[in-house]
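To: structure subgroup
Subject: Chain for Friday's discussion

All,

I'm putting the inputs and outputs inline so they're searchable in the archive.
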Amino acid sequence: MPTSHLSNVLYVATGAAIVLYPLALATSIGYADDPLLHFAQQGGWTVSHAVTGTQKALSFGIGILPGVVIFWVLMHIRKLFDLFRTGRALSLNAAQVIRRTGFGFVGLSLIEFLMIPAQTAVLSFANPAGSRSISIGLSSSMIGALLAAGLLIVIGHALAQAAEVSAENESFV
């Protein structure tokens, strides 16, 4: 498959993902027994019946953060595929987009790591003293996202250096 055709396909696919991801997220939240506890239930947290509306709202706000970052990363990935399909893959702009995508994955990993203790603390706060908890977890997907992020950031830096050298070489010709 030629690169331009692949870039076009990926550009369209990420455009579809940008539309479908929030719809799928909204649908899954809508079908939850308690939409404000959707993310906590997906995380497998046991929720006390004494949880207040404020705690539920805080838990929901914390739980939706990874989705916001994923949406932001999808927007940058789509921009990158647009640069590829329009012949600007080896540009400084492409390098910046690759780096931003990498930093987005770093942010996603950090948010997912911090989300677990934050949600468990918020949801167990209504429990009596001695029954409150904070959970900390590290998953292979967090580590994988960090490794992918590091790779993207390094590729972005290398591409930026290559674009600068190319621009310098073109100025001599």
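Points worth raising on Friday:
The chain has a mean pLDDT of 87.
Residues 97 and 143 are 22 Å apart (CA to CA).

D.
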